[in-house]
Design a protein that fits this description.
The complex is a heterodimer.
Chain A: E1 19-23, H1 26-31, E2 40-48, E3 51-59, H2 72-85, E4 91-98, H3 107-119, E5 124-128, H4 130-134, E6 140-145, H5 147-155, H6 160-166, E7 174-177, E8 179-182, H7 185-197, H8 200-203, H9 212-267, H10 277-280, H11 290-324
Parallel strand pairs in A: 1-3, 1-8, 4-5
Antiparallel strand pairs in A: 2-3, 2-4, 5-6, 6-7
Helix pairs in contact in A: 9-11
Chain B: H1 3-27, H2 30-43, H3 52-72, H4 76-92, H5 94-100, H6 104-122, H7 124-129, H8 132-149, H9 153-161, H10 163-178, H11 181-219, H12 226-251, H13 255-262, H14 266-289, H15 291-308, H16 327-339, H17 348-364, H18 369-385, H19 396-415, E1 419-422, E2 439-442, H20 445-461, H21 468-494, H22 497-509, H23 517-523, H24 531-539, H25 544-558, H26 562-578, H27 582-592, H28 594-597, H29 603-622, H30 626-638, H31 642-645, H32 660-668, H33 679-700, H34 712-723, H35 733-745, H36 749-756, H37 759-764, H38 772-795, E3 801-803, H39 804-811, H40 815-827, E4 833-836, E5 841-844, H41 851-878, H42 883-900, H43 903-913, H44 922-930, H45 932-941
Parallel strand pairs in B: 1-2
Antiparallel strand pairs in B: 3-5, 4-5
Helix pairs in contact in B: 1-14, 2-11, 3-4, 3-6, 3-11, 4-8, 6-8, 6-9, 10-11, 11-12, 11-15, 13-14, 14-15, 16-17, 17-18, 18-19, 18-20, 19-20, 19-21, 20-21, 21-22, 22-25, 22-26, 25-26, 26-27, 26-29, 29-30, 29-33, 30-33, 33-35, 33-38, 35-36, 36-38, 39-40, 42-44
The chains are: A alpha/beta, B mainly alpha.
Chain lengths: 330, 942
């Protein structure tokens, strides 16, 4: 079916999957899915040693609101059975999702990836950015939840303390798995041929300075997230304050109680009965921290993309400067 | 209404019913009658015709039944309540009792109740168990019944002697109550039949207590307690019946005979009685008309009662024949009449009549103006008293009478300069008789006139403003003003300064909201078309502005109560504003400092303040001071309750927020319709000024994150406009403004102009201004200017340079104006451009940050906020116990410390801190925040 090229193994990851190999065949499916709407689908393939090979995929049907009773699971099973009939790998190895300017980190993604990874240990989520790809740079990334995050999700302990204990930060929530794309020889030949045929103008696409709209969009979204982050922090701050205030009250109460008891003892009276302190001082509801983490993670993704984008552009600018000499850009 | 009418109508129904009854009663026995009634009942749909007696008795028996029930369950409170009702019912049926005697069952109840109460009273333990209410009721009831039973002592005694008979009756009673009401009647019939046997002795006996009751009634007249009042009522009632019978003695000459006859033929008696009653009724009417003669006949015998009895109406006799009528007698009479004032059952209309009659008598006898004035005062006072309810307004005829009275009073006062009136003249130091000394009369005409003014407001409030009636009522305003003017003249010569201030305020209140068209025309230089009109104008006195100025200045100087001054200032401002004297109005408003403390004033003054502010805003708008207009109207409009704040109507609200009581109070505060400020005009002025301010501002700060709204209301309207699924041509005023705003946003002043000024808007809004044309011209100019500004803001990025001539053509403004507008924008750094003088062009500099740069700046700001918030959390973690809270207190201390440090140390120290603060305590971090300013200074100076 396909000749395999051994990809250089990335950083060592303590997960069963160290590398993902994608068949070139998988891509056309994605490219059909342009547009701003989020598209999702199922990845099929097989696990070879520490390598996950994705050999096929099919999208979830785009269902509109009026057929709400559409049974997705049924459809999946149906689809997989059909694929099996034509002798295609039918092992469910994960799912994919399209993204819009790199905004994909959300609670929904976390939840579904958790359930996938919980059921099938090796499963990954493939994030694909159609817009960026259309501009000339393939943007395809595979993510998995880290074992620590898995642990937390399993216990559903999203409090600040729980996260602290598990030492999960936004930077180690997801792990990115390196991707190797494999094409069949036929495709390789086609590509070579295309390269030969393409004119110089087509190749200069690379030198284009990307318009600022992309940057603006990214900034806009970054800003939105920052706002959310701010709100979350304020919430958490309030919580902390009320907690410490209550702690203080509790402390005072206990001290008073102790003093009183000491006095009573000196007078020979029985000490006051113990009261349920937890009832008297109900701790305030701690705000869930997972959302904050997710936002932070999303922020870092945005920053990453912006950084990439700008560094590319800067590189081009410097190049242009060097080429043009000192006349135009100084 | 008065008792008189009540009894009158009652007797009428009695008559009609008795007329129906006559036939069966005359012919049939009781048995017969029962049949008849039963058959009536069976038909059910037919009205049951019953005699008055039956009706009354049924009422009594029903009450008695409930009392007995209450007795059974020991519910004293209920018992007391019912007993009181019973007494009242008994009183009502007094006339019947006179004929029929007190029914046996009534006596029986009284006796039983007393026994029962005594028994309960004795039962100490039971009493203790009783709840508070019940115990209280018990003691009251016991006292009451003791008092009450004194009147029936003999009957009760006889009942106690002979209880079997009543026991029999009781059985019957029970049977009766078990069946329908028809049988109830028969039950009563039976009782009366039996009691008739005893009637005669009873009847005679009745007379004695009656007499005693009179005495009691007379004696009790001073005391006010409820019990006494009741007995007083009782007394008066019996006076009534007594006097009637007295009257009858001559004419019908039957009572004694009737009584004798009664034992033999009861039915006939009732007939007779009815007849005589009817006659009596007629007589009563006659009595009213020619009261004097009748009354004089009575005079001798019943003198004693007269004073205390509130039923003056019954005998409006004035003076005995031949009495020498002098002022002392009249005064005495006057006090007599006045004593009935405010008492229950006093017929107020009759009292007024009486006072009028008295005035007539004193006039006839030439008793002098002193007395006349005193009576007039009282007539007016009782006219005001006529409505017991504060919310109710005067009836038109009363109002007319009142106006006439006050007019007459003023006439007298003006005609006789030797009369002193004042509220501080004591009753006994009055000098009413004609003598050399000037008259001294107690009373305050100012108060009366003020009250009259209030009544007028009330009448206007309660009239439908869209009816002819309102116009008719409004015509009286002239009279009211006339009276106030006369009073003003009077008080200017006679009154104290406070009084003058008060009357001035009244005058001001009637002046401030009226637009002086004559003065307006004169100021425009338009003389009256014809000579005669001009003459008329001149003869009609000074401008309202001059009057206002004079009156208000007097008040500012002389008034010592804050309220009058406040009102005067507000009215003065309003008047200025109304006549477009914007600077005077504004200066006065600013000098008064009313904005600072108006919230402490009472609601009517606040309403006046709101009205003034609105008028001020509208005035500013007319003068083209758009910003001032907007500021003045902002408070009123932004609340969305302009209607309520101006006292021009209540907002629909649910009852939770406002109960009926509050609603009544609020209704009383409403401003009469003819003083209203047009709300649509107000809103339009506000929206248009908001548009003129907001649209250029929006264009200038399109990318600014911290852009604030100038007017929320306006933005709301814009949003509403955007939400419309289908945009047709504008209909309402608001839609016009929204459409105009949209046009202006594009810099299209012509469309904007056509939306703001057109036929519809003219008729709705602009024509309401006195100088419409000026306002419209001003508006067009403003629209052109602001459109130009908006255009430059919006499209400056498109141009490299633009010729001012083109601009002046586009916006139809002359070149200097365009030049000045652009220069102003450049100076204010709103427009990054420079003027190129030789070519008359504006050269754009293009230093505006691009949207990407703007965005980056915003992001930086937001990140700053984020970091700050984050640090707060960090503080909290570091501090031991609520370090964050203590920060403020400790902060001061630490600031002091830091002053002592050398600046270089501090700078370096803090620079080191930067963001790596892990090991440092909370305190230092806090310092960083509070000293941000200092640090920067230090660093820069370094």
């Amino acid at each position: 079916m396909a000749s395999r090229k051994e990809a250089p193994s990335g950083k060592s990851l303590d997960s069963p999957v160290r590398q993902i190999q994608i068949e070139g065949l998988v891509r056309p499916h994605h490219q059909a899915l342009q547009g701003s709407e989020v598209v999702q689908g199922v990845l099929l393939g097989l696990v070879v040693e520490d390598r996950l090979e994705i050999t096929n995929c099919f999208p979830f049907p785009q269902h509109t609101e009026d057929d709400a009773d559409f049974d997705e699971v049924q459809y999946q099973m149906e689809m997989m059975r059909s694929l099996r009939h034509v002798n295609i790998d039918h092992l469910h190895v994960g799912w994919y999702q399209s993204t819009f300017y790199g905004s994909f980190v959300s609670r929904a993604l976390l939840d579904s990836q958790f359930s996938y990874q919980h059921a099938i240990e090796e499963s990954v989520v493939l994030i694909y950015d159609p817009i960026k790809t259309a501009q000339g740079s393939l943007c395809l990334k595979a993510y998995r939840l880290t074992p620590k995050l898995m642990e937390i999700c399993r216990e559903k302990d999203f409090s600040a303390d729980g996260l602290k204990k598990a030492s999960v930060g936004y930077e180690n929530m997801f792990e990115e798995v390196p991707i190797v794309i494999k094409n069949s020889h036929l495709i390789n030949v086609l590509l070579w041929e295309l390269e030969d045929k393409s004119t110089a103008a087509d190749k200069h696409e690379l030198l284009n300075l990307s318009s600022s709209t992309h940057l603006e969009k990214s900034l806009q979204m970054l800003m939105d997230r920052v706002d959310e982050m701010s709100q979350d922090i304020v919430k958490y701050n309030n919580y902390c304050r009320s907690l410490s205030k209550q702690q203080q009250q509790k402390h005072q109460y206990i001290q008073r109680r102790q003093q009183e008891n000491a006095q009573r003892q000196s007078r020979g009276e029985p000490p006051l009965p113990e009261e349920d302190l937890s009832k008297m001082f109900k701790p305030p509801q701690p705000p869930p921290r997972m959302d904050t983490l997710l936002i932070a993670s999303q922020l870092s993704t945005y920053c990453q993309t912006i950084k990439e984008f700008t560094s590319q552009n800067l590189g081009k600018l410097f190049m242009a400067e060097a080429l043009q000499g000192t006349s135009s850009y100084s | 209404m008065s008792r008189f009418f009540a009894t009158g109508s009652d007797s009428e129904s009695e008559e009609s019913s008795s007329a129906d009854e006559i036939t069966p009663k005359a012919t049939g026995t009781t048995f017969n009658k029962q049949d008849l009634l039963l058959s009536d009942d069976e038909e059910d749909t037919k009205r049951v015709v019953r005699s008055a007696k039956d009706k009354r008795f049924e009422e009594l028996t029903n009450l008695i039944k409930t009392i007995r029930n209450a007795m059974k369950i020991r519910d004293m409170a209920k018992c007391l309540e019912e007993f009181e009702q019973l007494c009242r019912a008994f009183l009502k049926s007094k006339t019947i009792m006179d004929k029929e005697g007190v029914p046996q069952f009534y006596i029986r109840l009284l006796a039983d109740l007393e026994d029962y109460l005594n028994q309960l009273w004795e039962d100490k333990e039971g009493k203790k168990k009783m709840n508070k209410n019940n115990a209280k009721a018990l003691s009251t009831l016991r006292q009451k019944i003791r008092k009450y039973n004194k009147d029936f002592e003999t009957e009760i005694a006889s009942y106690k002697e002979n209880p079997e008979q009543s026991a029999e009756e009781e059985e019957k009673d029970d049977a009766g109550s078990a069946s329908s009401s028809g049988s109830d009647d028969d039950d009563d019939e039976g009782i009366t039949a039996k009691s008739l046997l005893k009637k005669k002795p009873q009847e005679e006996e009745k007379k004695a207590p009656e007499a005693s009751k009179f005495l009691k009634g007379a004696a009790d007249e001073e005391s006010e307690s409820e019990d006494d009042e009741e007995s007083e009522d009782w007394g008066s009632d019996s006076v009534d019946s007594g006097s009637e019978s007295e009257d009858n003695e001559g004419a019908a000459a039957s009572l004694a005979v009737v009584f004798l006859k009664k034992a033999q033929d009861s039915d006939k008696l009732t007939d007779d009685k009815k007849d005589s009653r009817r006659k009596k009724h007629k007589k009563k009417e006659r009595l009213e008309e020619e009261a004097d003669e009748e009354a004089e006949a009575e005079e001798g015998g019943w003198e004693k009662v007269k004073g205390g009895a509130p039923m003056v109406k019954e005998k409006p006799k004035m003076f005995a024949k031949g009495t020498e009528i002098n002022s002392a007698v009249v005064v005495k009479k006057l006090t007599e009449i006045l004593q009935a004032r405010g008492k229950k059952g006093t017929d107020r209309a009759a009292q007024i009549e009486l006072l009028h009659a008295l005035a007539g008598i004193s006039n006839e006898n030439n008793l002098g103006e002193g007395i006349l004035i005193k009576i007039k005062f009282n007539i007016i006072a009782s006219l005001y008293d006529y409505n017991p309810n504060l919310a109710a307004f005067m009836k038109p005829d009363m109002w007319k009478k009142c106006l006439e009275c006050i007019d007459e009073l003023m006439d007298i006062l003006f005609a006789n300069s030797n009369i002193f009136i004042g509220e501080n003249i004591a009753e006994d130091s009055e000098n009413l008789a004609i003598s050399d000394q000037p008259f001294r009369v107690r009373g305050c005409i100012l108060t009366l006139v003020e009250r009259m003014d209030e009544e007028f407001t009330k009448i206007m409030q309660n009239t439908d403003p869209h009816s002819q009636e309102y116009v008719d009522n409004l015509k009286d305003e002239g009279r009211v003003c006339g009276i106030i003017d006369r009073l003003l003249q009077y008080l200017e010569t006679k009154g104290s300064t406070e009084e003058v201030c008060r009357v001035y305020l009244r005058r001001i209140m009637h002046t401030y909201y009226k637009f002086d068209y004559k003065a307006h025309r004169r100021s425009l230089g338009l003389q009256g078309e014809t000579k005669s009109e001009q003459d008329q104008e001149e003869s009609e006195g000074e401008d309202s502005a001059v009057i206002m100025d004079r009156l208000c200045k007097f008040i500012y100087a002389k008034d010592r109560t804050d309220r009058i001054r406040t009102c005067a200032i507000l009215c003065h401002i309003y008047h200025h504003a109304l006549h477009s004297r914007w600077f005077q109005a504004r200066d006065l408003m600013l000098m008064s400092h009313l904005q600072d403390n108006i919230q402490h004033a009472d609601p009517p003054v606040q309403i006046l303040y709101n009205r003034t502010m609105v008028q001020l805003g509208i005035c500013a708008f007319r003068q083209g001071m758009i910003k001032d207009a907007h500021n003045a109207l902002l408070d009123i409009q932004s609340s969305g309750r302009a209607k309520e704040l101006l006292g021009q109507g209540l907002l629909m609200r649910n009852m939770q927020e406002r109960n009926a009581e509050q609603e009544k109070i609020e209704k009383r505060r409403q401003v009469p319709f003819h003083m209203h400020i047009n709300l649509e005009l107000l809103e339009c002025v506000y929206l248009v000024s908001a548009m003129l301010l907001e649209i250029p501002y929006m264009a200038a700060h399109e990318f600014d994150a911290r852009r604030r709204m100038i007017s929320k209301q306006f933005h709301h309207q814009l949003r509403v406009g955007e939400r419309q699924p289908l945009l047709g041509p504008p209909e309402s005023m608001r839609e016009h403004v929204v459409a105009a705003s949209k046009a202006m946003k594009m810099g299209d002043w012509r469309t904007c102009h056509s939306f703001i000024i057109n036929e519809k808007m003219n008729s709705k809004v602009w024509d309401l201004f006195p100088e419409t044309q000026c306002v419209r011209e001003m508006l067009v100019r403003k629209i052109q200017e602001e459109s130009l500004r908006t255009y430059l803001f919006t499209y400056s990025s498109v141009y490299d340079s633009i010729s001012m001539e083109t601009l002046s053509e586009m916006f139809e403004l002359d070149l200097p104006t365009v030049h000045s507008i652009i220069s102003k924008m450049i100076i204010n750094e709103e427009l990054m451009a420079s003027l190129d003088q030789p070519t008359q062009t504006v050269v754009m500099h293009r230093t505006e940050p691009t949207s990407l740069q703007n965005m980056a700046l915003q992001l930086a700001e937001k990140l700053g906020g984020l970091v700050e918030n984050n640090e707060r959390v960090f503080d909290l973690k570091q501090g031991v116990y609520g370090g964050y809270f203590n920060r403020d207190q400790k902060g001061g201390y630490q600031q002091k410390q830091s002053y002592q440090r050398a600046p270089d140390q501090r700078g370096g120290y803090q620079q080191k801190q930067g963001y790596h603060r892990d090991q440092k305590g909370g305190y230092q971090q806090k310092q960083n925040y509070q000293r941000g300013g200092y640090r920067n200074q230090n660093q820069s100076s370094y």
